[in-house]
Amino acid sequence: MSELEPWQWSDEIWQKKVNKVRAGRPLVPPEWPGGARAAVALSFDSDHETNELRDGGASIGRLSWGQYGVRRGIPRIKAALDKADIKATFFVPAVSALLHENEQRMLAAEGHEIAIHGWIHELNSILSYEDERDLMFRSADVLEKITGTRPVGLRTPSWDFSPHTLKIERELGLLYDSSLMADDDCYELLDEGEPTGIVELPVEWIRDDAVYFNMHRFHALRPYTPPDAVYDIFRREFDRAYQEGGLFLLTMHPHVIGYRSRIGILEALIEHIKDHEDVWFGTHAEVAEYVSNLGDE
Ligand SMILES: [Zn+2]
Fold it and tell me: What is the pTM assigned to this prediction?
């Protein structure tokens, strides 16, 4: 757009960038459903094989890693949720949903939410408006066809939110987005200053299992955080959300959290949260629905 260096920009240029998509009014209820003090929304990004396909790859090894999420990750997650009678949100790329239709149908039938997570986990910011729009609409259609329910929310793959994403979310008539980071608690998204009615359920790398564990054989990427340390970080995030009466939202991945040495993090966290009687567990759609009705009176 501009050949100028950032320090040469006119005020208009940096103002336009910053105001493109912005956090508007906070959506923090005085209390949560049932008089609860805090809300918990657990999400699982079922990337599965798209972890490899999205980069154009065909590595048998990396595809098998994706399949682990299906074979072992999802069943362990489901068992942990079932034991505590919690409904969660699964963000599923359309290709992943087409590869594992029964998984989506089973989860949806049990009351979990299936929401949009791109077509093949593509990066939105490198797409044209037309391509991004086409993929997002087709993704919504695929999920609706498989589960029988039209999705109401989107998490952009890799949280990569393009300059067109919000416009397309509005065209799709979505209730919420869960890809941005301007707060701990929900807020309304502003489109160049204009309130959109779309609820942001903010994410953070801190509250994401992948950053603590994911490694890549051919890159210099070797994080390894001990499970107890990850549990401790997540627990601190929840404890302060509880103190403040806010939202605790956690992003996990079946092929990351689903291992024998790691699923205990989720189980222990659920147990810790359940030790508090006045906590409400909602799907992302339920949270968005609840807070979007604030201030309407
Ligand atoms: Zn993902």
Answer: 0.96
